[in-house]
């Protein structure tokens, strides 16, 4: 892999992270009204001016905006996101506690989507127009049409309340009860992975059909290569590039989709403090979580580009 290409991609990701951080900082100052006054306002009653001035000093809002911006970036470089305004708990500690749970949910949903969507797409392409192809295409259209919170609610109704095969929701640490942890993870993983599985099925099927129609596939078959070698070496390898692109893009959207899934299944990830922070106007917590999600999205895109370059060396050479 071209080292200069990799360095350029990493540098681009860092610049984008700085731009996102700047946008988040400016968004805080573009909110109508005084953030300190909004935080202290309850029931439409104007807060005491002395309390507003004290909170403005605590948040650093009384300083020039460039000074605030410098302090904000300096804090990010030191991994200091400040303290929550609600309970004075470090924002970074709260994120460090809950982020692994959200990532676990996203990873489980993505893994389920890959295991189901990609092989199903390959099989449907190899048996184009068959019964499986028609049924699977119809099912994926239905999965894409139904919102994730509806699927989550139906899963709870069917598997938890009616059949009583799975718990309705909650969380149990993996180290304490691995079996219960996996049971609690199964339904939310299905809910969050259903849409991605449908997308991967469609993209894999389309990419496989396109690859199967190429001349090099007919040439490989004419040379007498084994069908399995033609499928995995010549067809699937070339069909994976667009699939990986779609996978990377939708993994980023899963970061937002987990909010509803975690709420439905009472999964204690990042959604709980995010919703609580929005309702309580806890700006440091909101900024910290938004930045974390944004950086994760950039990291996922960087990994996708790395996989592209690994599968197709021409990408890094360009």
From TrEMBL:
Molecular function (Gene Ontology), one example: dipeptide transmembrane transporter activity
Bilayer-spanning residue ranges: 12-31, 105-126, 138-160, 180-201, 239-265, 285-304
Lineage per the UniProt record: Bacteria, Pseudomonadati, Pseudomonadota, Alphaproteobacteria, Hyphomicrobiales
Statement: the UniProt record of this protein carries the keyword Magnesium: no
Top-level taxon of origin: Bacteria
GO cellular component: a single term: plasma membrane
Compartments where located: Cell membrane
Record key words, sorted: Cell membrane, Membrane, Transmembrane, Transmembrane helix, Transport
Membrane-related topology note: Multi-pass membrane protein
Family: Belongs to the binding-protein-dependent transport system permease family.
InterPro entries: BPD_transp_1_N (IPR045621), MetI-like (IPR000515), MetI-like_sf (IPR035906)
Residue ranges of every copy of the ABC transmembrane type-1 domain listed in the record: 99-308
Gene source species: Bosea caraganae
Gene3D superfamilies found in the cross-reference section: MetI-like
Name under which the protein is recorded: ABC transporter permease
Pfam families: BPD_transp_1, BPD_transp_1_N
